[in-house]
Design brief:
By secondary structure, this protein is of the alpha+beta class. The protein has 3 domains: 101 residues, Beta-Lactamase; 86 residues, Helix Hairpins, CATH 1.10.287.130; 152 residues, 2-Layer Sandwich (Heat Shock Protein 90). The chain is built from 9 helices and 12 strands. The strands form 3 sheets. It has a 5-stranded antiparallel sheet, covered by helices on one side. Strand 11 and strand 12 form a beta hairpin. The longest helix has 51 residues. The radius of gyration is 49 Å and the shape is rod-shaped. The chain starts with a helix and ends with a strand.
């Protein structure tokens, strides 16, 4: 059985066993060197008291025994071997104790401890010696007791438990951290992310549930990468293959115009418009495919984001006039970045065109450029806002996916293929930035582009 539960159980069981054994050994060693030491001392003292008392009684009778008791501040009595009272000092009258032949016995009577000691005098006579001592209950303090018995076994137990817990945490959390890191990279679009196992692995830690999860995750990531790459390859190949028949279609269309009767002109113009739309779609697909194939851009150049937007605004304003709308640009900061001019121009242009397409007639599309400080780095923030119907909340994160369009965007007057924002998103990510969309409180939507400012 090599499951994770079994391994955790074994580790905790071993740790608890070590704690128990070490703590018990230290307690016994520290506080009870020998369980018979106290008893030996007590028996020796009682036997000595009994012999001295019997000797005093035989030498001088009760008076001598009382003198001996007074000198030692004892309450004692002496009986013969048959249990008859022979002598008792003041304070010891009435002591009763069942003697056990050959054994020292003791009991508590009220607030007194009474011991019975059989003794043989030097003359060979048998006596029973009785000794009474007051019992004074001791006051116990829980804190003192805990302190007395907690050191040093409690620190040892804490250290052993801490070491066992540390090993357990390393066993469980380290592969989980690697798995979480790889999952985060995969969610960010890095399909080549894999969970890298340790170079060396103890045999007992092989084949558990976490290792099986790591294996399944890597297999899933590999399959996902293969499927996505196959989809991209298919899309690129189909786009390339469509270019040739589309070119022949354009040539055939021009030849048909020369021989067509006037009644066919409208149909031929419709064919030409659809062919142009198809050509635009193929161009966007090829652009998207080529950008997704790029892992990193190296030919960055210093750019002014302000100048880049200003150069694009006249063309966007001209396009907006067809819907009796306008495009305005407001900048509160100068934002200098390192980037690819062509890719950023296309990204901003696609975002602005999308806003023009959905804004209300006779409304305004606003482009606002600001800068902000985030975690010690300055970021350029470009907001493109429209006065359209807005975006459903569930679709705010999906509009940057290829061919994704919300329901109200499928009407004929808006057009579009759902590729422009995907191209913009990829271009911005290649520059180390991000895109996100949100709805405005007064209506319409805003697409926000964030790019790192690399120059000052």
């Amino acid at each position: 059985m090599r499951g994770l539960f079994f391994k955790v159980f074994i580790i905790l069981w071993i740790a608890q066993s070590l704690i128990f054994v070490i703590s018990t050994a230290l307690i016994v060693r520290h506080h009870f060197d020998s369980p018979f030491v106290a008893f030996d001392a007590l028996y020796s003292s009682l036997h000595n008291e009994a012999r001295e008392s019997a000797a005093a009684f035989e030498t001088g009778g009760c008076e001598a025994m009382r003198a001996y008791a007074g000198a030692h501040d004892h309450a004692i009595a002496l009986k013969d071997g048959a249990g008859r009272d022979l002598c008792a000092v003041p304070g010891a009258q009435g002591l009763v104790m069942d003697a056990v032949p050959g054994l020292i016995t003791g009991k508590q009577e009220g607030l007194q401890y009474v011991w019975s000691v059989p003794v043989t005098s030097a003359s060979g006579k048998q006596y029973v010696f009785l000794l009474s001592r007051p019992h004074t209950p001791e006051k116990y303090s829980l804190g003192q007791d805990l302190l007395h018995f907690a050191f040093p076994q409690l620190p040892v137990a804490i250290v052993v438990g801490g070491i066992a817990t540390f090993v357990l945490v390393l066993l469980v959390t380290r592969p989980v951290v690697r798995l979480r890191k790889a999952a985060h990279e995969l969610a960010q679009g890095n399909l080549s992310a894999r969970v890298i196992g340790p170079d060396s692995q103890v045999r007992i830690f092989e084949g558990d549930e976490i290792q099986a999860l790591v294996h399944d995750f890597n297999h899933m990531a590999e399959r996902l990468e293969l499927l996505v790459n196959a989809q991209k390859l298919l899309l690129r190949d189909v786009s390339h293959e469509l270019r040739s028949p589309l070119a022949r279609l354009s040539v055939a269309l021009e030849l048909a115009r020369e021989d067509a009767v006037p009644a066919m002109t409208a149909h031929l113009e419709r064919i030409e418009r659809e062919a142009k739309l198809l050509n635009q779609l193929i161009g966007q697909l090829l652009t998207l495919s080529s950008m997704e194939a790029i892992e990193k851009i190296t030919n960055f150049e210093p750019l002014s984001l302000n100048v880049l937007v200003e150069e694009m605004v006249p063309d966007a304003a001209y396009e907006a006039r067809q819907r009796q709308s306008s495009v305005v640009f407001r900048a509160s900061d100068q934002c200098l970045i390192l980037g690819n001019r062509k890719l950023l121009h296309r990204a901003i242009e696609n975002i602005v065109r999308n806003a023009i397409r959905y804004t209300k007639v006779c409304s305004e599309v606003e482009i606002r450029l600001t800068s902000t400080l985030e975690q010690g780095s300055r970021m350029a923030v470009l907001d493109v806002s429209d006065h359209g119907p807005g975006i459903p909340t569930n679709d705010l994160n999906s509009i940057f996916l290829p061919f994704y369009r919300v329901d109200h965007a499928r009407s004929p007057h808006t057009g579009g293929f759902g590729v422009g924002l995907a191209i913009a998103d990829r271009a911005v990510k290649l520059h180390g930035g991000d895109l996100r969309a949100f709805n405005r409180p007064d209506g319409g939507a805003t697409v926000r582009m964030r790019l790192p400012i690399s120059l000052t």
